[in-house]
Amino acid sequence: MASREFVTCVVCQTLTIYCIVAYDNLALNKPAWQTNPYPHRQNVGADLAVDGRKANPPKSDGQCTLSHGNDTAEWRVDLGAVYSIHHIFLQYMTGTSLWGKDNYFTVYFLGFSVYISNTTNKDEGTLCFKDTNYTKATIPNPINITCPYYGRYVIYYNNRTHPPYPEGYSEDAFSDLCEVEVYGCSTPRRFGLTCSTPCPVNCLMGRCDIEAGTCFGCVKGHNGITCNEGCIEGYFGNNCSECSSNCVNNTCHNETGDCLTCEIGYIGERCEKECDLGWYGKGCSLPCGRCRNQDTCNHFDGRCPGECEPGWSGIYCNEKCEDGYFGLGCSFPCNNLNCFNSTDCDAIHGECTSSCISNWDGPFCNYCAPFKFGEFCNNSCSDSCQENRCNKTTGHCFACSGSKYGSFCEYEKEVYQLPANAFDANIGFIVTSSILIITLTGIAIYVLKQKCFPKCRTTRDQNYELTLIPSTSGGYANIQNVQVEELPELKTSEIHESPLSPVSTFSADYINVSANE
């Protein structure tokens, strides 16, 4: 339960004194912490500075926080939640002596700072006070520091990190605090002396100045010190930020900042994006024309950066060539072609879109039709040309039909003609002659066999033995049991096979004959 300790006294004309209790001590008995606890004594911790006792006891009494000197000294209290704070009460240790330039503790108090923060890091909070002018003779004790902000942690800080120090400063920093009290409204979204007045409804997070009730910020779409005004045209959001310059007339939704309408060439909720490639105009709804080399048009006005594609013209390159013209810049007339209709050609390439005039052919009607040749394609290929095909310029045939020859196949080859029955007579003669030759040949072979048969048979029946024996003396063979009268039948290079030896071939010049007489 917060204690109401801050008292405002009002003296009326009747000299009657009315005491009004205002603001709550938000730090009473809350958790406290310090960096350099005093190591040589018990019951001198950081929590003694929030016990609510404001007496001025001696150092050994146990009512004040004691610290050990160091380069820096820090003490803080955790209020447990974020509160609206009005002021902070600090009472430094005096050691029962009168406070003044001769007091031993004044040198420790000089140069201190006080912060309010939503975290334990003082640098992430708000600096409420920083002593830069006090001296030993002028520094007050106790001291009230007005700090109308919101926060959870109240932090006392002192340092001796950058010598030389001002005159009268101690060499070390201390945090010997006897009492720290934080006064504010314990009820959220309230302000005023008794914390009974609600903050304006459009204050950001419901927070307002604890005395005046002015908002620290506004919810989206509202403006003014109490957030009861909308943003002027062209502005939006918590702090009435300026609408995008791409919004038409710089007007946007007063809460979201979304443009009501985009300028030409832009899209997106806040008109932050240029038209996609190939589109332009209001709402990026118009397709670009036929820009050459696939260039994209200007996203504002749709103009191509260079020429139009062949077959197209106009400042947006979206107009086809007029009838009778084609190509780049629509600068080529169709009437120099042989189209059936002289103005009837494709706007891009110039191809005839209808048929060609007589004797002409091709997409552009610029070469001769089949079977035609000549400068004006008005000459016909010779009928003697094979398939009636000829050179389109000279008319020369590529090949001739039948026995024709010549450049135009204008000549006839002379061919000897046999009588009608000559072929049949020749065939009969050839067949008859062939049969006769075959017959005579067969008769001759038969007669020769009949003459040879008795003599050949007698010769084979002769009883002789022809034995071939390899010679051991001179490479000759010995032949035994051979009748002398049979020798004339043995011819040079005759081959004989012995049942006792492999087949051998001997020349008659190397045969040694031994007759059995």
UniProtKB/TrEMBL annotation:
SUPFAM superfamilies: Galactose-binding domain-like (SSF49785)
Molecular functions per Gene Ontology: scavenger receptor activity
Keywords, in A-Z order: EGF-like domain, Membrane, Transmembrane, Transmembrane helix
Top-level taxon in the UniProt lineage: Eukaryota
Record-annotated membrane-spanning stretches: 427-448
Domain EGF-like residues, every copy: 202-241, 242-272, 283-318, 380-410
Protein name: Multiple epidermal growth factor-like domains protein 10
Gene source species: Crassostrea virginica
Encoding gene (name): LOC111113063
